[in-house]
What does this fold into?
Amino acid sequence: MEKIEKIQKSYKEYVLENGTQPPSVYIFAKKLKMPESEFYEYYNSFEAIESDAWVEYFRQALLTLESDEVYQTYSVREKLLAFYYTWIEVLKNDRSYAVYSYKGLKQPVARYVGALQPFKNVFYNYATELILEGRESKEVIIRPVVSDRYVDGLWLQCLFILDFWVNDLSRGFESTDTAIEKSVNTSFDLIGKSVVDSVLDLAKFVYQNRKP
It folds into this structure.
C-alpha cells in the first residue's frame, strides 16, 4: 500500500507540475528510484494510476458515509444526496488533479469506457443496491422496460454532477450543491410514484371492478 500511495502521489505531482504525463514508465520509475519492473508490479500504465485515483475518491466517500450511523437511517433519496455531497467534498481535497484528469479524458467515449471505467463499475454496484433498497421501501417504482435503465440514468447523473463541479465558478461551489439537490430530487420524482402512476392505478382499479 505504501508503494502504491508513493506512485500515486508522485504521478499527481508530476502531471500538475508539467501539465502532461511522464514521457515513459522508464523515466517515471527512475524518478521514483525504483526499477521499471517494480512499477509494473503495481500498475501496467499511467491510465491505470488515473483509474485507481477515481475509484479511491469513490471509496473515501463511501467509507465516510458508512461510518456514520445516521446515514443508515436515511431514505434512498437522502443516501444518494449524502453520497454526492460527500464525494464532492473528497474531490475538493484533490481538485487540481481531479480537474486535470477529467479534462484529459477523450470526449465523449472515455468518460464511459476509459479511465473512468473502474469508477463506473463500483458506482453501478452502489447505485444498483440503492435501487433495490428503493424498491423494497416503495421509493422506487418498477416499470416495464424502464426500470432496467434506472442505474444507467444515475450514472449519467453522476457524470453531470462531476462535469458541473469541474466547471463551477461559484463561491464555495454553491451552484454544485444546488445542482446535486435538484438533479437527485428530479430523478426520484421520475423513478418514484408519480401522478401518472396514480392515474394508472385508478384506471386499473376501475377496470378490475367494473360491472359485468
Notes: The chain has two domains: 1-44, 46-204. The chain has a mean pLDDT of 90. DSSP finds eleven helices and no strands in the chain.
